[in-house]
Queue: 2 jobs
Job 1
Amino acid sequence: MSASLPHVDPVKVADLIREVASVEILPRFRNLKEGDTRQKSPGDFVTIADESAEIALTPLLLDLLPGSVVVGEEATAKDPAVMQALAGAAPVWVVDPIDGTGNFAAGREGFVSMLALIQADDILASWIYHPVTGEMTIAEKGGGVTIDDRRIVPFAPTETPKGILAYGVRGAPGIAAQVDKRRDRLHQVKSARAAGIDYVRMAKGEIDFTFFSGIMPWDHAPGAMIIRELGGHIAYIKGDETYRPSQALAAAGILSATSHATWRNVHETLFGDA
């Protein structure tokens, strides 16, 4: 692990994620009862498994790293002020207990559990776990990326990038219409409807860019660590080109690519003046 995090063992963190998933998530997969699923807002689902997993994981993480705080998707839905911790001095665990809740609720396997460790808006490590397959992706600042302990090589350049355009009701007004108007200019691949899965697909070389209109840090900070460690680029589509998790509430969309050049090309295609 990075020297700046001497008290955090990434393997122990991975084990906690697996433990919580085995108790709170997998037993409820394809076994949700009436009332176990609701909508926080149109198109934004939450299940009892999301809430129970976040509640179970939170004290385990706090015990593992004393002095840290937890910013969870479900806790933030109740109190957006929780997001302010991302830019603070204390280490922050950003938790997405089930990324791809719509898939989970529909009985589809396209969901993962995600976690990122952040301090002063800097992502230090991340974990993306697929409870059904058992696949674990770990990224550490300065330490690279592994998938099931197999080290992933940095991104290679490509002349014909292909990727994902995921846009819809979540995100700044007008962004979806803008992307929809120009999407045919790019080579698209269907999204898994779970950002964490799509970021792991990029690490595996299956895609070269992703655009998401939704920009909350629990959806993207774990993937951002992967992109950076493999030599790619990730940023909001407007303003500062440095991805900072705390700026999500004021951002308008997030674009990642396997290189800065590909990022610029995709950005210009979608949002340029031409």
Job 2
Amino acid sequence: MDFLPAPLSRTLLMLTLLLGTPTVFAADRYSIDPVHTRVAFRVMHAGFSPSIGTVSRPTGTLLYDEADPAASQVSIDIDLATLDLGDADWNRKVLEDFLDAGDHPQARFRSTAVEAVSENLLRVTGNLEIAGGSAPITFTVVLNAHKRHPLTLKKTLGMQASTDFSRKALGIDAWPSLVGDRVHLDVAIEATLTDRNTEDTTP
């Protein structure tokens, strides 16, 4: 039996693999805009009214695949020192007694699944890490815009997300008779397409 020369054989093999393998496009990578991304939270105070606060200037990335949202990923970190409840003493008590910010200065969210509910609605599930605890939560995400920004001229994702979770599930159980267990989050998000497009989908 005749055999092809080794270099030609390798070339034909590579062509066969390339032609027989569909092209895979990586999700686009977006960087969180810390100025236009913010988290607002509320939790009942002594059964009278919800205490409302914010944390701001997050960092992180969104890997977004418009054609296949299930291939998308979210990775966000927030410095808890940005906490603002409108009062310096209340900020300090929450950071110390509830969030253990001295030992755990950052909150983190890492997605584990993204599901398209409709054209502009996503369900994003992942793990929230805060105060040394971790618990799964699911955000309902509304996609407001995915287009070129009129000021920066860069392609931008604009979204809003919301969820409720149990603080006790994260081990945050201080003052149970005064502070409610259910915490509501509202998140405003803008993220800008990065200059580097990569096949690495690990945020």
